[in-house]
Amino acid sequence: MVKDTFYKAPMLAFVLQRKHWGVAKLLVSKTSNPDQALGDVADSGRAELVQAVLDNGKPSQASLDRAYASALTAKQAEVADLLKKAGAHEPPPPVVVDAKVLESYTGTYKTEQIPLDIKVFVKEGKLYIQATGQPELVTKALSATRFAFAPAQIEVEFDSADSFTLKQGGQNFKFKKAVSK
Fold this sequence. Notes:
By secondary structure, the chain is of the alpha+beta class. It has 2 domains: 11-85, no CATH class; 99-180, Lipocalin. 36% of the residues lie in helices and 26% in strands. The chain is built from 7 helices and 9 strands, in the order αααααααβββββββββ. The chain has helices at 11-17, 21-30, 34-42, 47-56, 61-73, 77-85, 99-105; strands spanning 107-110, 118-123, 126-131, 137-138, 140-141, 146-149, 154-160, 163-168, 171-180. A 9-stranded antiparallel β-sheet has the order 4-3-2-1-9-8-7-6-5, with helices on one face. Helix 1 (11-17) packs antiparallel against helix 2 (21-30). The longest helix has 13 residues, at 61-73. The chain is globular. The N and C termini lie far apart (44 Å). The model has no long low-confidence stretch (mean pLDDT 90).
């Protein structure tokens, strides 16, 4: 797979970002990694690109399920239908976390590993995270202590109300609460 030499991102990601659908379809037909391609094209909402990935190779069950759950969340019915027909499983019912538990996590967290603060807050009964200078991300509860933001493959796992581990890209960053609410 061709990658950018500076950002190390796959060429397909750049093509999708610029909405060059024909070029994206061509790149998908040449990929040897259907899991990566499906992950890249599913969020575009373009059913023809998802179909091209499915025609080119069989993505893993985990990739199908992840893309299907994401399509359902984004209300991309045509993409969801294709993925369901390809064998994607229904996502599990949402985990409901007690409001008091969510509130206990609110605050600003810091780490010595990277120069980034993360604000954790609750809005409309959901846990949000927001890194300094970044947009807020609504997480999906996986349990009372684990939350995920699937599009960026971020997982946040609280080991107490005062600390969590952020997992992304095979790396783990330990954050401690610096300021409550």
